[in-house]
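INFO  loader      accepted 1 record
INFO  loader      residues=341
INFO  predictor   begin
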Amino acid sequence: MTAMRAVCVSEPHSIGMVEIERRRPGPGEVEVAVAAAGICGSDVELLEGTRPPPYVRYPIVPGHEWAGTVVEVGEGVSGLAEGDRVVAEGIRPCGRCDRCKEGRSNLCTSGYAETGFTHQGAFADSLVVPAALVHRLRPDADLAAAALLEPAACVAQGLLEVDLRPGLEVAVVGAGTLGLLAVGLLRLTSPERLALLGTRADRLVLGRRLGATEVVDADAEGSLEGLRDGFDLVFEAASRPTGGAAALALARRGGTVVLEGISGAREPSLVGDQVPLKQLRVQGVFGASGAAWRWVVALFGTGALELSSLISHRFPLAEYDRTFTTLRDRSAEALKVQLVP
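INFO  predictor   done
INFO  writer      dumping tokens
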């Protein structure tokens, strides 16, 4: 048996560096050496035990945002070779259920399975994934930036569900990773107006660089008053109870709201009557389908999708504890924190 390092969450509040078996790829699989792995709020939930039980299996090696290099391909795999730079879809669909046949692999009904939550993730030296989920990148691809293709695909999934066209007035609620990725993707649709609402000055500045035509400090008194009822499309990525409510308020009558953030609120936080009174279309998002992945991978390959500017911190795998501490510390100005094996 060949051993490798991995960060394992054995149960809530219990995390440590361990040695696990380095599994060789079976038929239809590939082994990928991890170059960079991002950490997000769902990884913190996994550690703290607040992730809904159906969406995690302990013990687990986290890491669902990652990129790396192929080191071995299994029997029957074509189109991939040792040395290829790649990313891979996280959700592992059955390919047979009605949702999969519709192309909505993120909604597979055969049972939830996702790298980093039910299967070994990328907080390790390498991982094995189904070759059918792998997307090959350019030979010169920036793998640290490519690790953000997973959250970008989740944002893209929300945008694929709505009527996008040039000339829309659009608002993004939340200036974290998802919100900034939404700005970067929406910029490419040639909106008439692209407003970003957030609470961190540094992130609002970055939002401007990524394409927002205006930025608003959501904590400033009266900041939303002049914006209410003004937007054709509102993309919510705040992951706080007030985010969804703000998104509904900002949408015009007949507008569309995409709810991407998960706040974990135990009490209702939306005024449901706004939906019929304003005849809103409200779209939820769960994960990313293959179509969303193909879209962002293609954009990244052409250089149209800027991702590297979202990386704020990088730590060696052995310093995994610092990644969680940094992500929780608002004074650290952390945006996207990565582990580097």
